[in-house]
């Protein structure tokens, strides 16, 4: 067994949870659910393979949180009903049987919804058409709809959706929830000046644009109690704007990450194209800023393939965990292979083509 990358394999802690190592599967939408948003037939073995391959923590793909405006994609799983939540029980059991930990990612699409079986329109902070075009590998095409601006009642329903989904996740046996505050989806639309033109308490200054994060965090914490793990994901880039940099620079990082500490959140997950890049001109990487301003455990994600990169990030205390996305798709057993000093596969976008679902990818995965 390799001792070369010892930092990867240390036991670590988030909240009251012990995580067997510092290797995390990043949340990845695979549009492979049943039509009613319950877990589809290929999903159990897909998630099981990551646990069998040695990942200490698995974060699920983004699950929609309500039967209103949260759904993003055709065949996306939800956690808006008891039935949807309970359909995860066999997945959770497989993961737990292999001593890994699993968090549900709770996601509201806002203006980036490409498909919603409950409603025909989209809603976001303001009536601003999203940049870019819908993603073909999630069955989308053409421009995004122009969303309707959310009313206070809509915002209250969003917050209720997150807290009820968190309770359903807890009762189904998930070890924690990660609230998706990144990548251009609803919460990030509130954080971003050009998609948030509101002049009420949810808009304006960085404090105002973070208001919904505070309200969601507080509502979820009140709903699940003190012990259940809650994390938030942040990014600067968006699926429909890969250039974006927070307009308030490091002050945004300070405000956002210290808010997480103040709201009794248990961890922060940062996603950047490359975990070692400076977040802002001349600054530390985003994960390091998250540690500095929150004092919480931080998961860093983005652009990692080689074990050396992950190991150095951990060794330098830039983060407490490293989350792997695409390279984990190519190597569901990345931790086991690295431990055995084996040879890793390279990722190839054909694994997500033409649709990013598990049936397209069947040849690449340990699926029956
Ligand atoms: C197919 C696919 C689906 C994704 N779905 C999600 C998602 O549901 N939630 C999320 O926060 N990020 C999602 N991401 C982003 C990844 O979590 C990760 O941030 C990104 O792939 C960069 O990490 P990597 O360089 O290790 O791949 C997705 C990425 C891919 C490739």
What string gives the helices and strands in order?
EEEHEHHEEEHEHHHEHEHEHEHH
Q: What does the main sheet amount to?
A: 8 strands, parallel, barrel
What order do the strands of the largest sheet run in, or round the barrel if closed?
A: 3-4-5-8-9-10-11-12
Note the beta-strand portion: 5-15%
As for the CATH topology, it is: TIM Barrel
The CATH homologous superfamily is termed Aldolase class I
Helix count, per DSSP? 12
Briefly, what CATH class?
Alpha Beta
Instruction: State the helicity in percent bands.
Output: 25-40%
For the record, the count of structural domains works out to 1
From the 3D coordinates, which CATH architecture would you assign? Alpha-Beta Barrel
Helix and strand composition category: alpha/beta
How many runs of DSSP E, i.e. beta strands? 12
**Straight-line distance between termini:** 29 Å
Could you say which small molecules are bound to this protein? Answer: flavin mononucleotide
Query: Looking at the structure, what is the overall shape?
Result: globular
Question: Mean pLDDT, rounded to whole units?
Answer: 96
- Multimeric state of these chains? single chain
* Rg (C-alpha, Å): 19 Å
Low-confidence stretches: none
